[in-house]
Amino acid sequence: MRVHVRLKGSIMEQVSVNLSHGGTQSVFTHQSEATGTPMTFSAFVPAHERGARLPVIWYLSGLTCSHANVTEKGEFRRLCAQLGLIFIAPDTSPRGDGVADDDAYDFGKGAGFYVDATQEPWRRHYQMRRYIENELPDLVAGHLPVDMDRQGITGHSMGGHGALTIALRNPGRFRSVSAFSPIVSPIHCPWGEKALGGYLGADRDAWRTYDACALIEDGARLPDLLVDQGEADNFLESQLKTHLLTELCEKVGQPANIRMQPGYDHSYYFISTFVDDHLRWHAERLGKSAR
Amino acid sequence: MRVHVRLKGSIMEQVSVNLSHGGTQSVFTHQSEATGTPMTFSAFVPAHERGARLPVIWYLSGLTCSHANVTEKGEFRRLCAQLGLIFIAPDTSPRGDGVADDDAYDFGKGAGFYVDATQEPWRRHYQMRRYIENELPDLVAGHLPVDMDRQGITGHSMGGHGALTIALRNPGRFRSVSAFSPIVSPIHCPWGEKALGGYLGADRDAWRTYDACALIEDGARLPDLLVDQGEADNFLESQLKTHLLTELCEKVGQPANIRMQPGYDHSYYFISTFVDDHLRWHAERLGKSAR
């Protein structure tokens, strides 16, 4: 067993660590400058040679989730260990007593939508874009044995939206992009209209930088794309609207492998079924690890 | 997708079903005659040809668990689907408002210890031996496509104790037996002394039929045995005492592969690391499925 998690000073605290599949599954907390709150994330680091730097997959979770859901139910460790992939799962919003919230499951805590809020009372802490795009990568790069030239990003539902929009806004940063049941166009669904309207205000032009389809329409491109979507997903027609992305990719020539999976729903039973395909797909694009 | 879960009458109710790895992960409830309460269990049934009957693995959970822990965190479905194994996970005790309980985590609800209680106030509902040994197998045989001539049993911690003792008391029923971090001799540890004393009374002779080491000392044998035990398990020295089983198997010539795993703890991060080894081990002994 090799554990090379160096914690410099007290910037981030290792809350727990469990040996699993020969690697270490850790949970870390740290004080975030972006959100002004403590933030928690999990990191799986496969066994590796001392000094090696491994490719990293960022996994963004969906509504109501924290880092814990995919960490417990995602079934990613076996293949990450085999392929030599570090797997990072952040939280979905700021947390804590002083953080504004909403009674609904789809707004407020657990529903940060990976945006930088501009509206009161959200803008003080709901700065999840800056946190995921800038602060967390810097922190992880400084503390874990990641090769930041080999990054992939994925996510589920609201986190699929996050993965697609972050990749589209940061061309060249991610060699591989995939998503499970993503919200492909928040501008065009009730979850998205509520969240973007609440966090960003009524000016819908400001929403387009947080909408994968709008970003593609406005000229952004991905290197390639893998999407899995269950056909028995209760949210497919009303919220996810995969066909909008499929049609747009065809129209503009964006390479994409968007797979509709008969009988599968929106749950981790679906995600864990196809996570191996996604991890292999990322690993192929991220190149061999140094293990 | 083929789902062949036939529910005759209203004997058992399908609470949920999710397609996963091509098979169905279901949760069922039914009124138990043994416990006098509703009981819940989960069942994963791989995709299979109509009319086929598949080998079945019984997984007994540990203290504080319900059917849900292994169902969510066990990472067994991928390989069960591939090997054609049905995987059944029962609850660890009777539940409900009218069921006697104790404030401790290691006695009462969630801690049935797979015994038939003889003492008040436990004996009315805490009849987990009869439930797991007789009632649940009959129910499952009548409703799911299991081949009852090809049964394997395993479990974790208290459930490892359950798996070993049930297999030892029922020679010939299980072609394959394994355990993760089992309590190998409840007679010789605080968890076991509390539970067996509480459920069965002070006469320690009555405890021996619920103690794997005592059963082996008294002449019972297993066809073979696979055990994995983490060396960083906090409960190893005080409660699990794996060495008692290792030494006894050597002494009496009981075939056993008892593996000490450096760095691993008592959690599902450990179980999920080695579940593939156990499933392959069972599948080899249960023979080819009819898929």
Automatic annotation (TrEMBL), chains A, B:
InterPro entries: AB_hydrolase_fold, Esterase-like, S-formylglutathione_hydrol
Pfam families, per the entry: Esterase
Active site: residue positions: 157 (charge relay system), 233 (charge relay system), 266 (charge relay system)
Domain of life per record: Bacteria
MF (Gene Ontology): carboxylic ester hydrolase activity; S-formylglutathione hydrolase activity
EC numbers for this chain: 3.1.2.12
Family: Belongs to the esterase D family.
Protein name per its UniProtKB record: S-formylglutathione hydrolase
